[in-house]
Write a structure and sequence with these properties.
Chain A is of the alpha/beta class and 342 residues long. Helices cover 49% and strands 17% of the residues of chain A. In chain A, α1 (6-13) packs across α2 (17-24), α5 (77-92) crosses α14 and α8 (165-178) packs parallel to α9. The A-B interface holds A 1, 3, 51-56, 58-59, 64, 73-77, 80-81, 83-84, 87, 96, 98-99, 101, 114-115, 117-120, 141-143, 258, 261, 265, 285, 288-291 and B 1, 3, 51-56, 58-59, 64, 73-77, 80-81, 83-84, 87, 96, 98-99, 101, 114-115, 117-120, 141-143, 258, 261, 265, 285, 288-291. Chain A binds a DNA duplex (16 and 16 nucleotides) through α2 and α4.
Chain lengths: 342, 342
DNA sequence: CTGAAAGCGCTTACAG
DNA sequence: CTGAAAGCGCTTACAG
């Protein structure tokens, strides 16, 4: 069973490849090809199980109908859900998606961008790593459609869709303050990503503005070196909790939350009786598995859908679409179950 | 900034495209091209930022260097980790991977296989859905390299790599029986997948063989209709637990485990004091988040690596490789933390 | 109504 | 040592 080509069908039916091509692409009536011929060609194409070679089509038309998606780590829930949403949404517009993981490594990210460009993807969806700025600019210079997600470069004018981290943390902090917590700690990662900065700012601002807190407690931040080992990080968190004895703690990332919970377990600190915990939750992990902690939910799915739309705008496939191409979506604070029920 | 092609470089340096192609593909010395010319061509290619158009290369060479990976749901941890492992392993052989989710829907699976074939992927890695059998056979007839993972069709001779589910459940059961549990329940999904059947068989056999259990308890199985809603499933589990009052329960899938834990929480049944829980764990989720339950760990990463190797064998890229092309890997039983420590 | 021909950007025998 | 030419499998003006 060899691959069957347009030419094969043309030979068998005794017409030219052009005619076959027109018929198979639904342009029979447009080209005023006779019904009889059309039926005959369609029938033999069907019988032989003809599948067009998309490689050839792409080379000829200059379109691959493929979108390149660059995420940090596809095995991470946040990015996996993002990828899936994007895949589904892109499909509605007739596009396929190939995903790649940068592992937060710039060299790898650049290599992947190059690879995607070589494969002639029609557009790029990217959660950029630090320092990927110039690569993004290069893509724009080549007139490649690009949309940034989750992170962005304030100085560069690229369509993007972000999360309102500031708002999410603010709601959570207001809730904690209102509930009477007086020693709220904030554990974050020492990374110069703008979304991390935003989260910290929101924490600081919430405390500054709170009249009850203002007098009683001061800011209580642990900023952890991301290059430290897992065990080192845990040690830092454990020591911090022991020294500062907070009555509530805010973990600024999902991963820190996991580490933190391990520490709390080892120290036999009970949640939420002895310590209230709030964590950024990428994919309802905490909500599903540990209902005793409160979460700030990321609008992952909406982010994915919007990003695809912004890309389609650039590809000219989304008629009557968004006027704004730089979006910021809300993150939702969800108090722990027990709180909700009381 | 237009895309630069081989021809551009040929024109600028004043040689033919053939010469440029040879030089750029490292065949300069083989073709005995002068050093000076080689340097000149390389320099201008570099200056212009030349990137070969892989679409054209693929069309010409008949190789895309892309592998198609078909999984059930990429946003599921098990498949996400599998995909990532495969991606990393394939890269070592110079291959890229495109993933697709079947959502356990045959129609969609077939459409995706067709799409991958049209895109001319060089090989297929598949976790097959029920009834995908004929499609797999078709691929083999077209001499497309295929490897099946996690599931297989006993009647069809296709390279595959599976998990020894029977062994994993057996170890877990032996452990429970040895620890003195007397009313061990088994909650599974009513799906005719061979790996589910294996798990249930192992449960039954373990009980039959156990001398202590033989007299005291009989088999206690709840088999849930997979098409039921989440809430219905939870109700079934809750009723089953209430009626049967097991002292240990074995959830045959990760998802059932999550539902079960929700039920236990709602009924305020304490783990492991009032009920021991064992669950199949796809991706260390339970181990990380809930140390009080025991798990049967799937060898996801090894499965991915082995699958790539089996595919490379077929592509002729893995010299001196496996003689066996149907593998079965062990699943590991990991008792809950507290058990380990005592 | 239908066909011959060019061309997408490469690689690779073949010829000199 | 290097170039002219064919061809991978399509699409699409162009001609009749």
């Amino acid at each position: 069973m060899k691959k069957v080509s347009l030419k094969d069908i043309a030979e068998i039916t005794g017409v030219s490849t052009s005619t076959v091509s027109f018929i198979l692409n639904g342009k029979a009536s447009e080209m005023r090809i006779s019904e009889a011929l059309k039926k005959k060609v369609l029938a033999t194409a069907n019988k032989l199980g003809y599948q067009p070679n998309q490689i050839a089509v792409s080379l000829r038309t200059g379109q691959t109908k493929i979108l390149g998606l660059l995420v940090e780590d596809i095995s991470n829930n946040f990015f996996a859900l993002l990828a899936k949403t994007i895949e589904d949404e892109a499909e509605k517009f007739g596009y396929r998606v190939v995903y790649c993981s940068t592992e937060n490594d710039n060299k790898k990210g650049q290599a992947l961008l190059r690879m995607l460009a070589q494969r002639q993807v029609d557009g790029f969806l990217i959660t950029p790593t630090l320092g990927m700025e110039t690569d993004i600019i290069k893509l724009q210079l080549q007139h490649k459609p690009v949309v940034l997600m989750d992170r962005y470069f304030p100085e560069v004018d690229v369509p993007h869709v972000l999360v309102n981290n500031y708002g999410g943390v603010t709601s959570a902090m207001q809730h904690l303050i209102q509930q009477g917590y007086e020693r709220i700690a904030f554990i974050t990662v020492d990374l110069a990503l703008n979304q991390m900065q935003e989260r910290e700012d929101a924490y600081n601002d919430a405390l500054s503005k709170s009249s009850t807190q203002k007098t009683k407690s001061k800011k209580n931040i642990l900023s952890i070196d991301p290059t430290a080992s897992r065990e080192e990080k845990k040690k830092l968190i454990a020591r911090f909790l022991k020294n500062n004895k907070p009555d509530a703690v805010f973990f600024a990332t999902n991963y820190l939350g996991i580490l933190g919970l391990e520490c709390l377990r080892e120290q036999k600190i009970r949640i939420p009786e002895e310590l209230a915990v709030v964590c950024f939750d990428d994919h309802d992990i905490f909500r599903l598995y540990i209902p005793d902690i409160s979460v700030v939910q990321q609008p992952v799915e909406e982010m994915g859908r919007r990003a695809v739309h912004l890309l389609m705008d650039q590809l000219g496939k989304n008629r009557g679409a968004a006027t704004k191409n730089q979006l910021r979506l809300d993150a939702t604070f969800v108090p722990r179950e027990s709180t909700q029920k009381i």
